Predict the 3D structure of the following.
Amino acid sequence: MVNTGELIDRFRGLFPGTEPVWTVRAPGRVNLIGEHTDYNDGFVLPMAMSQALHVAAGPAADDLIAVHSTAYGQTVSFPAADPGPPGEPFWSNYPRGVAEMLRREGVRPRPGRLLIHSEVPLGGGVSSSAALEVGCALAMLALAGQSLDPVRLAMLARRAEHEYAGSPCGIMDQFICVLGRAGHALLLDCRTQTFEHVPLPLADRELLVVNTQVRHELGSSEYPVRQRQCRAGLEHIRRIHPEVRSLRDVTPAMLKAVQRDMDELTFDRCWHVVTEIERTRRAAEALREGDLPEFGRLMYGSHFSLSGKYGVSCPELDAVVEIARGVPGVDGARMTGGGFGGCAIVLAHREAEPALRAALARDYDRRFAHPALVYATRAADGASVARL
Ligand code: GLA
């Protein structure tokens, strides 16, 4: 947990003569299931994490928005009225991008100072970038004395990611960061953008995040490749089923029927998406029925499909899932987020946690010569602003 007093002291030290007036909390996320389905109009089932990014913000008397990141130890600034195009350092594109998107949305960003401190691991597959976008957007809105409908806010943050960070992401990360609810997962229909908060009946279970400490850099080049492969598969299917608009409309049987016309790789990519959408629906149903063993089985199914068919896992993530699977009391495990590193999640009976930690310390460390970091998380509320 971040200590607000320390954040304020740090703000005053960095920006003498400026007083913080607002604090913002923007959570990271774990996706429970529904991976690489959002850009295929499918379903996702993420939750906001208790670990969050924090912003302290105060108005300034000049024309600038200046932003300091404790993670990078840098301050960047740009004119509030004209944030300008993307540039260096790379992380500055997130605050600059949301300032520009707010401006395009008709909100006039006001001069101010922002201090950012995050507990969400960077490059860890738990959406530190969406937290940064949403956190900065809410701080800038507060400084401008305005607010925005949550769905519009999520869409705006995603546009900043597309245009300023160059990442063609789906809508899951920004949505959950804004719309998370404590104790609940969010079942989001990425086609209609309608959603349902599904209670997480965890009772005697715990949700553990296992950070492989492998940064998911490869993900940024492979992500658009997967999007292209999905589109290529869709084109094949549309020759027989012209009514199909996205992989969301395709059933496993329809896909099997065109398998002969497709190369194996394209088929495998589409197979993952089509079956993952189905698994996500079933997983939401399992939660509603309190059937956590079934939920766990679906998590494993998701992981093996992401690893074997979609090709977005890595040896470290596969190892975490295999090790977890061997520990009595573990219901399920899978990689979470875009893949190629970052985090896995494990659903386990609370008393299984020490055995899981021991197994990881023994088998993961030995294989990869570095530890995996394990921490418990809970489903938290979406981003919020408070006046100091
Ligand atoms: C990244 C993207 C999301 C989603 C996931 C994979 O986190 O930002 O939009 O596509 O990958 O499920």
About this structure: The pocket of alpha-D-galactopyranose is lined by residues 31, 35-36, 38-39, 169-170, 172-173, 337-338 (CB under 6 Å). The chain has eleven helices and 13 strands. Residues 264-288 form the longest helix (25 residues). Residues 167 and 221 are 9 Å apart (CA to CA).
